[in-house]
Amino acid sequence: MEKTALGSSGLEVSVFGMGTMTFGAESDEAASHAMLDEYFQAGGRFIDTADVYSRGGSEEIVGRWISMRGNRDELVVATKAFFTMGEGLRGAGAEYLKGAVDASLSRLGVDYIDLYQIHAWDPNVPLAETIGALAGFVEDGKVRQIGFSNYTGWQIERAVWTTREVGGPTPASIQPQYNLLARDIELEILPACMDNGIGLLPWSPLGGGWLTGKYSRSERPEGASRLGEDPNRGVEAYDRRNTETTWKVLEAVEDIANARGSTMSQVALNWVRNRPAVSSVLLGARTVAQLTDNLGALSWNLTEDEMARLTEASAPGIPDYVHGFLRAAAGVTVWDELGTVSPSN
Ligand SMILES: NC(=O)c1ccc[n+]([C@@H]2O[C@H](COP(=O)([O-])OP(=O)(O)OC[C@H]3O[C@@H](n4cnc5c(N)ncnc54)[C@H](OP(=O)(O)O)[C@@H]3O)[C@@H](O)[C@H]2O)c1
Fold first, then answer.
1. Residue to probe by mutation, ligand 1, list 13, 53, 201, 206, most atoms within 8 Å of CB
2. How many folded domains does the chain comprise?
3. Which of 2, 44, 203, 278 is buried deepest, with most CB atoms within 10 A?
4. What is the pLDDT of residue 142?
5. pTM summary value
6. Buried b / exposed e across 61-78, counting CB within 10 Å, b at 16+?
7. Is residue 345 situated within a structural domain?
């Protein structure tokens, strides 16, 4: 599997990262280890976890696999902190993070974390405090690079400026939701990343499973799938996404998959992989069979014409103000420019 630069951080990551949100939840330890083996066998070396996934369970499962395989030095290991780990245990405050990073190191059974991410913006803590703490972890050798997740465009710019002010490490990555059904990041977040040499790590590249084509227009899902288990689950919620806009995008994905003889998942993953600033697409899977399907996207790529068709079919439209105003004033907006970006290979 190819590697790409994580923004301008100097760190290299595999073009597909192994997401581990299902570990210890939908996927038990044996299934999770089988997926890690499959990913590693395909040449993948980038693993993304978080303390909150299965309340530490995902980090522990990854940690036991690393210890069994003895492959720590070959891997780029990313984790995150912020969401609740217990009563009063959450946030991006310095004291809390000091305990959180040590707990993650211990669960993962490693001496350092390659990429330590703040899982979401914390409105209750000055950013300088958070970044000061992160700088300390880098100085102590506990962390190599820092990143953020679920930040808005101005919060990313603020983070970059704050690291300059306090002399902390430059953010290497931003981890946002990004897929053919969720392109909002193109207005503010993606340009902020491009402007600052920050690598994008898209989460939910299949829209939580929607882009595999497994959900239907007429039946609320049931059974062993993410929305079958909970049709109201988070950003993927069935009723909210069961719209004409979604079906238009899914039809375009299906047309290309049929013409290619590939799966819809592979089409959707390749679209994300080709988008600007994207360093590594975080794969999510419940089973090895799903992961094998998704890894199959690496053996081919979309043409420029297919990219353009998908980009057009999924175009979200721009808000009248300020983006519409700027388009009228200058004839072009950031979004227009991104809409015409071609695949890199
Ligand atoms: N930073 C954040 O806030 C944040 C948030 C979410 C995720 N993440 C990261 O991003 C990773 C990926 O996110 P995600 O799991 O939401 O990604 P996703 O690719 O959008 O959805 C993955 C889910 O879709 C289904 N699926 C995947 N491949 C399939 C296939 N080939 N055929 C049929 N179904 C398939 C599986 O769910 P079912 O079988 O259960 O339907 C799987 O768990 C996570 O593991 C995590 O590392 C980060």
1. 206
2. 1
3. 44
4. 98
5. 0.96
6. bbbbbbeeeeeeeebbbb
7. no
